[in-house]
Write the structure tokens for this entry.
Amino acid sequence: MKTWHLTQQIGPEGLHLAETSTPSPGPNEVLIRIRAHALNFRDLMIVSGQYGPPPTLPLVPLSDGAGEIMAVGDRVTQWKCGDRVAGTFFQGWQSGPCHSEVFGWAMGGALPGMLAEYVTLSENGVVGIPAHMSYEEGATLPCAAVTAWQALVTHGHVSADKTVLILGTGGVSIFGLQIAKLHGARVIATSSSDEKLARAKVLGADTTINYRTTPAWDEEVRRLTGGRGVDHVVEVGGLDTFEKSLRSLAMNGVVSVIGGVSGFTSGVQLRDILAKNALIRGIFVGNRDMFQAMNSAFDRHELRPAIDRIFPFEEAPDAFRYLQSGAHFGKVVISGVA
């Protein structure tokens, strides 16, 4: 089978295509032919050596993929050949709160990932993808969508009387927009591109702000909300955005800290948190129960992920470079082996 391996953490140039043996499933495992893979900013950080402790190399990268079950172990009871599934980001986190052991179960980092023609996973490490979605759409769900779901639904309890601020138009942010609108919330979206903001409006954004032409976007958020601020910020920017996100917040609001595109260090004043009685909550993807609850909602409403581009399997490094460029809107996908 064909497999991409990360052999050096020097960026997309460290990826190499190899021929390896097709694995066989263990007693409680399923063999999946991966039909589509999806990229996250975390994947780019890993291949560039900018993410946490260095992984063991060579590494099969990517946390996200969807495909068809081709074989099942003799003790598997949940799945059969032909089922359409996606892997979970954390293979061992089934339910309940996050705990320290979870981080050892992350695909494409602590564990080998999904950028291969075939993978074997625990029968408890996969979920069925919504019937109306293609494999390409299903592949986008495990990381970005579940992250936005945990932030806004599991903990955020988003509802029609809330206002949500999303930063940028990457994968987590666009899923945040879609999930917030699914629950009737008002959404304010930011981007440096008027074209991307127009696309966000098509997906339901109520108001948009170009942060390049409006650098004091936090003041604009407060103006748009009558001085009140927003109830929830989906914070993916990090160093360059966190303080303004906090200033955009209403009393008793929530900032879900999800990413750090501009860095993970901030000089925020603690009094700003105290003065607003703010809740600052770190969000790291989610568990299998959250994934299944989200898929049920997506299935019921026939929600479709926003896919920007699909790259052939053999051009995986180009997909990483495209993600690195920041030109994408929503998700960047890599097709399965033809």
The longest strand covers residues 29-38. The chain has two domains: 2-142+286-335, 156-282. Residues 2-142+286-335 form a domain with the Quinone Oxidoreductase; Chain A, domain 1 fold (CATH 3.90.180.10). The chain has a mean pLDDT of 96.
